[in-house]
C-alpha cells in the first residue's frame, strides 16, 4: 500500500504507472528461513497480504488526495514508521546462523554468478514479469484509448479485479496447481496462462470490431486471466529460487534475481511501448498482444525445459502445498 501511496501521481485523475516492484530480497529470505517445510504456502499467504495492500492503496490514496498530496506523503511515511516498530517487536528474534567459513561479498557474488541453473531460471522468468507489468503501461494505455472519458473508472476495475483474484484465490489456486501438476510444471503452466490471457485483446484489440462494450469486456477478461496466471506462478517461483540456491546465500540469490528480472522489465516495457505505438500506426493493434503472448509462451517453454533438472524438481516438491 505504501508503494501505491508514494507512487500516486499529483493529478487526482491519474493512476500510478510504475510501482509495485518485486518484494525485497530480505523479506523473501526471511520467509524461506522461517518456513522451510512450507515455503510455497508461506509465499502464497504473503502474496495475499501484499496484493491486499496494492488493492487498498489506490483507494486510500484517492481519498487522501482529496485533501493534499502532502497528506498522502505523510500518511505513507506514517505507515512505514508503524510497520518498522511492529516488525521490531512482533517478528521472532533470530540470531545469525553459524558461519562455517567466512567469505567476502565478492566471493558470494561469484558463487551466485556461477550458479548456471539459477541464472537460466531467472532469465526464463523475465517473460513472466514483462507480462505481469503490462498492468501498468500497456493495459492503462489501452484503457485510455477505449474510454478516454472514463479512464480512471476502467483502471480502477482492472486493479480491483487483480486484487480480488489475488486476495480471494491465491491459496486455492496454489493448492489446485500443486495437486494437479506439481511444483515444477505449475511454473510453466502458470506462465502459459499469463501468455494466453492476451488472446481476448488479440481478438478485440479496439472498439471497431464489436463495439466499446465488447472491447472493454475483453480488457477486463485479460486482466483477470493475467492475475490468475501471476498468482499461480508466484509461490512456486519464490520457492524455486531457494531450491536452485541449494539453501545457500538465499538473500544474495534473491538480490540477483530481482536485478535480472528488473532489467528485463525495464527493457520489456520500453520495447512494448514502442511496439504498441508502431502497431497502432500500422493499423494492426492486435500485433502488440500477439507479441506479448509469444513472449510468455517462449518463457513457458523454457521453464518446461528447466523442470527436469534434479535440483528444481526434487527441492520444489518439499514446499508443495498439501490439501487440508
**What is the helix fraction of residues, given as a range?**
over 70%
Q: What coarse outline follows from CA principal-axis ratios? A: globular
* Classification by helices and strands: mainly alpha
Q: How is the CATH topology named?
A: Growth Hormone, Chain: A
- Provide the CATH architecture: Up-down Bundle
CATH level-1 class: Mainly Alpha
The helix count comes to 13
Largest sheet: none
Extract low-pLDDT stretches.
Answer: 1-23, 319-324
**Which series of helices and strands comes N to C?**
HHHHHHHHHHHHH
**From the alpha-carbon coordinates, what is the Rg to the nearest angstrom?**
20 Å
Annotation, overall tally of beta strands: 0
Q: Please, what is the average pLDDT?
A: 81
Estimate nothing, just give the exact number of structural domains: 1
Q: Ends: how far apart?
A: 31 Å
β-strand percent reads under 5%
Element layout with pairings:
Layout: H1 2-7, H2 25-34, H3 39-65, H4 69-90, H5 105-113, H6 116-132, H7 138-146, H8 151-196, H9 199-203, H10 212-244, H11 250-281, H12 286-306, H13 310-317
